[in-house]
Amino acid sequence: MLSGWGRMSPAECEVVRPAAPSHLSDATAGTGTWIARGLGRSYGDQAVNAGNRVLDLTQMNCMLGFDAGTGVVECEAGVSLEALIDTFLPRGYFLPVTPGTKYATVGGAIANDVHGKNHHAVGSFGNFVESFRLMTAEGNLLDCAPDQNSEVFWATVGGSGLTGAIVSARVRLQPVETGYVTVDYERCKNLDDVLARAHDGDDRYQYSVAWIDCLAKGGSLGRSVLMRGNHTPLSGLPTALSGNPYPGTARRMAIPFDFPGFVLNAASIKAFNEVFYLRHHTRQGVVTDWNTYFYPLDQIKKWNRMYGKRGFAQYQATFPEESVNGIVRLLERLSATRRASFLAVIKRMGSPNAGLLSHPIEGYTLNLDLPNRSGLVDFLHELDRILLDHGGRLYLAKDVCAKAETFAEMYPRLGEFRAVRNRLDPNNRLASNQARRLKLVEVPA
Amino acid sequence: MSAAAPRSVIIAGATSGMARACAAVFAREGYAVALGARNDEENERIANDLRVRYGGTAAAIHFEAADFDSHEGFLTACAEALGGEAGGLIYFAGTMAEQRAAEQDFTLARTMIDVNYTGCVSLTEAFARRCEARQAGFIGLVSSAAGDRGKQSNYIYGSTKGAMTVYAQGLRNRLFKSGVSVTTVKPGFVDTAMTFGMKLPPALTASPEQAAEAIFRGVVRRRDVVYVLWFWRYIMLIICAIPEWQFKKMGM
After folding, report:
1. Are A19 and B52 an interchain contact pair (Cβ–Cβ within 8 Å)?
2. Would an 8 Å CB–CB cutoff place B41 in contact with chain A?
3. Domains of chain A with bracketed CATH
4. Total domain count, chain B
5. pTM
């Protein structure tokens, strides 16, 4: 049984794990559909293909080359972000863009065009992909770059693996002087406060994100802690740390079993939120190691077990700049239905790229974890409606139950995407549960 | 480790998941590595990966476990690539055919015997002579818990590993006075291409990376026998303690 990280909709799939790129054509031979999968951190049913094949590409994880002058690494698609950090941080390079987990693969990062806390400044992962090699459903190898097969390039960046399997990629890393981030914390008393501060101050920071208390109501609706930072220069490192400017990763604890469903309820989350808000008073210049700043949840292995057997949905809603009051409506609905989100963050997003199904648009994004309690799907559809009414959009890496009509309305370039796809995959060999549900591929009648 | 053993190692059978992970640990720890494998393209892919990640020497050298006459030449080629005789050898080469198929088709059984056992003896004896000559070195032989007791489900494969285990015991005995260590590795269940798709209990199954760390530690500390997950030692003790008259009736 295979599911996404949110574990909401498991399905029986035939999993094959090619050991090397040379095994890819065998792994995709035969009939039926297939989809590539990396480390399985997408939340929904994106890398799940019920009754059909899923290609686990995690063993296709060799590094192919590195140019120490430009910071461009060439590697196979199954290389994890963690491996890139482990290998290249000691040489002074960090990921140009990182999602909230380092347990994602380069292929997955491209297929979701992932974004991170620096989206407002530099955009998403696809912006740093110099080129990649794609194996199409027809078995052809296609080299793609912004100026080579560019249609295919921008259909694949954010394309959920539906253009083929990414075999290898060249990614431009960013030079850093240390493995630390100097973080400023600011408490914001409500949503207006945090949005105003993000709008005015984010330009001074490479990274910006706010933790938001979804249970606060009335005048405190959207009270938050804004956490913004810049890579610490060598000169900014306290003497105690300057001996080891590039720290490694620490040991992790694990959630040993599924928590019973009641552990995360409105009361426990409210208590957590209270403590979190009170502990994070406004302070400046906190030097934090990369692992703690970028990947707080990675410290806990299998943290998805916190939500119990039924799993959870992650809901990410991005609103255009001019309709941020959509966030207010969303938060009000959450607050009213007592559907607390244990971890909720809000972030200002910068310019989008040319990815046909790439998620980011300029504006604000809100990210929620919602335990799978009865009525969740209906509730998410209700949120989808609010999102649509405000010109916003969902994120394929998180989506687990949206309707095809909703998605089509949110992504106006879906038609172009389908056209590129049909050309690359005339026999409809590529598919996933999500792609069928959202009609990203032709669904047999 | 004796002072004379250079920080270099030969990995024979380098393209399996466990061997690759083990080569990575040696490379990370600053060892020069020579990778031996039959598939040159795969081998070079892995060697290149080690060079990009760790910056040291990592050479891909053609190796055929079942071509016994080529083994001296292979060791010489490794020594050339490593800039001197290798400090150690780890024998990973191994193949497992489906038991039922091997019962019907002797060529399948024979390949397992040739690759897993005869090839191991051929290469290791050649390497042992070189070690004896300079009174230094380490040898790791990746056997299997499957060799501790014959079971109907995979006794042909198991017998090649059992032979390897006995061979390692005797070799250890012989090389002790020369200051050369011989470590027998019994990985237990490891999540590799060989076991992918089998329904292995997750709690008893190690990742290739875990196995690699355990093998590296065991070999450089000159241990005699290494189990990757400690409880496998006790699982096998129990399995081996079952009387044969009882064991033969069990469907294992």
Report:
1. no
2. yes
3. 180-401 (3.40.462)
4. 1
5. 0.92
